[in-house]
Amino acid sequence: MGAGAVEATLPLAGVRAVEFAGGIAAAYCGKLLSDAGADVVQVETDATAMVRERTPLWHYLDEGKRSVAAVDDPELIARLLGWADVAVGAVRPDGTLPGGTDLAKIRAQHPRCVVVSISPFGTTGPWAGLPGNDFTLQAWGGSSGRRGDSESGPLAVGGDTTDWASGVVAAVGALGVLLAAADSGRGDHVDVSMLEVATLVFNSFMAVADQLAPEPVPPGPPRLYTELPSVIRTSDGWVGFATNSAPQFRAFAEMVGRPEWADHPEYSRADRRGLHAAELGPEIDAWARTRTTAEIAAEAMRRKIPVAPVGNGRDTPEFDHMKARGSFVRHPGLGFLRPVVPYRIAGLPPRPPREAPERGSNTEEFRAELGSDESTAGSGDTGGSDLGGGDPGGSAAPLPLGGLRVFDFTSYWAGPCVTQILAWLGADVVKLESTQRPDGTRLSSAYATSGDRPWERAPLFHSVNTGKRGITLDLTRPAGVSLARRLLERCDIFIENYSPRVVERFGLLPDPGERPDLIVARMPAWGLSGPWRDQPGFAQNMEQAAGLAYITGHPDGRPMVPRGVCDPLGGLHAAFAVLAAIRLRRATGVGLRIEAPLVDAALSVTAEQVVDWSARGVLAERRGNRSASAAPQGAYRCGGDGGYLALSVEDDEQWRQLVGLLGHPEWAAPEELAYARARHQAHDRLDGWLGTVLADRDRAGTVDALLRAGVPAAEVVPAERSHDNPQLVAREFFQPVDHDVAGRLALPLFPARWANGDAPRHRRPAPKLGEHNGDVFGDLLGLTAAELAELEEAGVIGTRPVGG
Prior knowledge:
This protein is an alpha/beta fold.
């Protein structure tokens, strides 16, 4: 199949997007749209230098886009917006997109266009327009407050993860509204808040855990925590583990020769084990030092313990699994390695590799293509792809996925994240569990001391399963499999995230010829091919293998996992692929079969490591809380309660503002400190001075003053208290939901707001185990009350875990 033929069959073929260049988040959103077949045009501005200074990364992010230099040509920008279905860009403090394009003006003049804005705090609320970056937003969102130790303090995740996550959130939001616009003929404003993104992907369920805990976390400084077992030094490198379930930790304890650990009431609990690192850590380290990474990984895989070698920009592409799957390809022009698209479509090759455009290289082409008739400039009527009819003057937009039914065969975090997004957008999601094996989060994160039915009080389950109907079926029984197949016949989409052999053993999926309209999304941790195909894997293992753990930690310490970020990142990437497939099915009637492994999403958001190593021989290393683009940057004790202030000085003007707010201390007087290079070189001394001068200041007042002066700063918030943030409260990011057993819970939403539409909202609480057996098997499939009673008596369906 030729390049043109491939592009014509991609799910977003025919979609037109304008990207206001300037930053990772907007560029990654544009890349995802482009890789799925959209025609993406960058409007180049001075802010483009933010990305283009990192030249190899820019070539990766902007492959295949077109470029228009139109910052000084508002008429051409207006025509581009009239041509486009989607416009995306990072919002400046004054509320405009790069180049000065006003959001409200776009909405008024181009009502068909889906406008996606990305900003630190969103465009509404008391903090709208204030500065923030990945480092300070992690502090606000509770990420840094979960990681580190009492000696070195809170620690942020490396790698600009909030920016990458905001890019995929923007892409998902764009497609959600684009699907609605196909019916209404009207676009909307998708207002992405990077604070909400950071809160969701790093920490969302910890705030819910605090609401369900028998003893909520009291106000005060963050409780720093180290996961165990996690990354361990071997005789020749590093190896990483994730023992989230009791059987997995038992297998690990037996492997290291300490089987009694599995029966210890504290060691056996994943949420308590890290508190005993002083007792367990030295023994684990001693065991690992005499073995190679390959030896340990092989033994752990044999025992079905989730494990991964710890990768980085140099080593990850060399892993046998990545090579076997073709996880990296060469850039067509410069030859460096970069990851493939983070999902694969059966029977369809990925979009052919393409080079990035030269700045402004398509400007004259677009002038000619869009014409120069001033009578249509800015009218929103210069083209655009066929989004359908509808009335642009209507009130609330319809839910874009209304009428679609989803067979949700997912567990834990990443898979349920996808189906929750589909439920937010209006789909009828039917979640399948069994009484023999409920969703793993019901038991692993439940509070057993919190009254009757503890499996209904699991914070992670509540966080990612709202809006769904819940059923149970024992798929080891013929009657269970038969009912599951009957249900699937009534569904439009099937999503699962188990290891490949699970679905294949039950034989649930029909052949493509039987259901050509069925959209299938499979999300095994390591993918459907490669030597690690059948191995269990959690988000921590993806963070270890892809390099995110390698660049998180202190230079002289061990790598540290972010603790789960790759689950929601994997879910968001899979949701993007599913929404793109829905668009294609609406046009053609044909469903796609999608493979969206956790590992491929992790490789995409850590792409810069591989790109920089293969292009320039630069290996990203751990920096603690420091950054190549900000100095000083760190978490400093501030106030009298032991809490911390996160500070990030990104440019010389911010340094001048900081020095002024601190009263022009003598140590800040040397003229050379006015320049970033000198501040980087003096970082150790600056940390010491700042630690002293900030220690006795009022933390909240100092942070507020810094923000109002344009300096990114934050309080380092305990993960459990992130829902108290006034900006999140103002934007209603945590929505109250009433549950029959758990009571009223404030649960996180999608990290963006629609200006006019009704999505996303929690429309029903997370289902109780088997709560909707009667609705689904009776009302939908036609079983009688007697048949349902017989199935329950036989244990095929039920509402309590076996042994519960």
